[in-house]
Amino acid sequence: MRRFRCPSCQHEVFFPNTACLYCGSVLGFAPGGGFSLIGDDNPACANRATIDCNWIAPEPGALCLSCRHTTVVPDLTVEGNVEKWARIETAKRRLIRLLYRLELPLNDAEGNPAPVFELKGDPIDTGKPRVLTGHENGTITLNIVEADDAEREAMRSAMGEPYRTLSGHVRHEVAHHYFEALTGNDPAQREALRAVFGDDRADYGEALKAHYENGPPADWAQSFISSYATAHPYEDFAETWAHVMHVLDGLETARAFSLVGADLPEDLHDLALRPMERLAESWVALSVSLNAVNQAMGHETFYPFVLSPTVIAKMEAIRALITRNWQL
To answer: Which residues form the signal peptide (predicted)?
Structure first.
């Protein structure tokens, strides 16, 4: 994430801000630029009053680029659902900004938003099935319980995950969409990914069943970013994609705050042109430092993952896939 300044007083403002905390100017954000003063030329998103969306809409009364990608919102008559919706949308705005800056397609062939998000809460009737987070044909379903810190931590602990965040969830799920969107019309590109991640045609249901029954291989960390990535090539791709997003966004933010060397580009787009081996070198050095700082403050480890040479090669395949799209 870059650093931003108020267009009125030039004091620093931050990505979620709806107003400048110094001069009080009412602000709106555009993913192709930065903050502007809300007004006739820069109307606020129609969701601003409900969930504090701080993005600019194309016209008065319209949804912003990010909110257009949500087609189902939770039942707002249920206490707490507005707050959960707002927290998910905050994470999604960061995701959409990332996808936009990386020039990844945000519409389908007919010009409709793609991927789209359906944000749902579990039914009040506990006898009915819970909402499962997942992806199908460009639609990402997200159980809004993920926006509850206590519930998410309980799930993280129960599943033995190093960490579980909203940003990680949306970055993982959107990967399934782009696996199809970026390779669907290019058999050669699909085969190239299969050479790296394995054959995605393997039975998904059976693979997941085996994973949950038997767990990951003992040596999984040598070749996979997470134990869940071992379940199926789809999940290996999605888990690795999420970490490519973590590294790119994290390094852009660190560069903006002078936490990494000036030899790295300031802009996300330019960072993505660097080989992943070079990016990983800076990221590992940064994460080791931040892990130590977090531990000194009594917090959880900042980045509890190991980037082995095999994992870095997988990340490079995804970085190359993204930037290859710029040439088409």
So the answer is: none
Integer angstrom CA distances of residue 248 from 219, 274, 282, 306: 27, 10, 11, 16
The size of the chain, in residues, is: 328
For residue 123, say if its preceding peptide bond is cis, omega within 30 degrees of 0: no
- How many whole angstroms separate alpha carbon 181 and alpha carbon 184? 6
- CA-CA distance, 313 to 321, in Å (whole number)? 12
d(CA 176, CA 311): 18
Angle at 234 between CA 232 and CA 240, to 5 degrees: 100
Write the CB contacts of 152 (distance below 8 Å, at least 6 apart in sequence): 145, 146, 164, 165, 166
Name the percent of the chain lying above pLDDT 70: 96
* Range 76-99 average pLDDT: 95
Instruction: Kindly state the helix (H) or strand (E) to which residue 118 belongs, with its residue range.
Output: strand 116-120
User: Taking a C-beta distance cutoff of 8 angstroms, is the pair 260, 266 a contact?
Assistant: no
Letter string b/e over residues 300-318, b meaning 16 or more CB atoms within 10 A of that residue's CB:
eebbebebeeebbebbbbb
Instruction: Provide the mean pLDDT of the chain.
Output: 93
Taking the domains of the chain in order of start, what are their residue ranges? 1-63, 65-171, 186-328
Per-residue confidence band for 226, with pLDDT thresholds at 50, 70 and 90? very high
Give the tens place of pLDDT for each residue, 10-37. 999 999 999 999 999 999 999 988 999 9
